[in-house]
Design a protein that fits this description.
Length: about 110
């Protein structure tokens, strides 16, 4: 955004897992209020999972344990590497599984 903070990715909301908390960018930072973002935040609340929306610097985002992107077309997409930093996908996998359990099968 204009303050140098990450707001969103191309057609995706940004999430990260840090300090055992699901984090996403603050509502006022210019990111898109995407459907999957709302679904994931609502689900985290239902599951009793700690979550926060916050102003994050690029450095804070890069320091997270995991980074993933969400959108309605691809669900949760794990970021495997950013520069020299390689990220785990444990929580992204757990969240994907939990969301899939919530979806009605037709």
């Amino acid at each position: 955004n204009t303050d140098g903070r990450p707001a969103d990715a191309v057609q995706s909301s940004i999430f990260c897992w840090k300090n055992e908390t699901l984090c996403t960018t603050a509502d006022g930072d210019g990111g898109v209020d995407g459907v999957m973002r709302r679904v994931l935040l609502k689900a985290a609340k239902q599951w009793g999972m700690p979550f926060s929306t916050e102003h994050m610097s690029i450095e804070e985002l890069q320091a997270a344990d995991e980074i993933f992107l969400t959108n309605t077309m691809q669900g949760i997409r794990w970021v495997g590497q950013w520069g020299d930093r390689v990220y785990d996908n444990r929580m992204a996998g757990i969240l994907t599984g939990k969301l899939n359990e919530m979806l009605p099968l037709s």
